[in-house]
Amino acid sequence: MTSLGVELDQVRDSDARLLATVSGLDGARLRGPSLLPGWSRAHVVVHLARNADAQLRMIDAALRGQSVEQYPGGEQGRAREIEEGVTADAEDIVAGLVASTAALEQRWATLPEQAWELETVTLRFRRTVREGIAARWREVEIHHVDLGCGYEPAAWPVEFVGAFLERTVARLPTRMPGTEESGLRWRLVDRDTMRSWRVDGASVQGGDGAADAEVSGSGWQLLAWLVGRGDYGLEVAGKADRLPDLAAYG
């Protein structure tokens, strides 16, 4: 199990890379399209800032023995905050991400040991304050790619891919309701580690056994595809036409 200090360092390193990219954007590039449909780069930056604010708000509430919404007003409130945020000046949008990132890192750095197991409630599930570190890491690394500024999944840290590939595969049945009815059995193979998994209807099993299709490649390629960010040259064998459209679930 990764130590708390290592987890925090991993997110700080990812934050630093993200902020270096964002700080290099002028107004025109910030207003330009991101890789997410309907979102500019400003939308991505504002979302990341509000996400950090939300973590900070939930942590502070947990320290008081309370629970608050991740985003006031739920999904609609989240969307409203982002749309309002992108109307600000470009300099303020960038400064907002810098400030919110620094505030969250500072709160993490000063938390008492017992605070890490306090519970918070997100839009979809419950998690501990410590689990919020991994959640933030995922947000930063994936949305850094979404900016479309040259940072691609191949640059994801090996530790990031290792941490999130397994859990992303495990959650596939919950992300794709109804796939058990298709009868499709497909195998995923990580060529870096030779780990493999078989998705059989609504379950994920070890990679052995018959499969209708096989998707293989480097761990980062698999992870990018599984989170709806493209296949980046994955190898597909068998009934490729029956594989799910994971872009719809990104």
UniProtKB/TrEMBL annotation:
Signal peptide, first to last residue: none
GO MF entry, a single one: isomerase activity
Keywords in alphabetical order:
Isomerase
Residues annotated as domain Mycothiol-dependent maleylpyruvate isomerase metal-binding: 11-147
Residues in a coiled coil are none
Among Gene3D superfamilies, the record links this protein to:
dinb family like domain
Pfam families attached to this UniProt entry: MDMPI_N
Q: Which NCBIfam families match?
A: maleylpyruvate isomerase family mycothiol-dependent enzyme
Q: What is this protein called?
A: Maleylpyruvate isomerase family mycothiol-dependent enzyme
Q: Which organism is it from?
A: Catenulispora pinistramenti
- What are the top taxonomic ranks of the organism? Bacteria, Bacillati, Actinomycetota, Actinomycetes, Catenulisporales
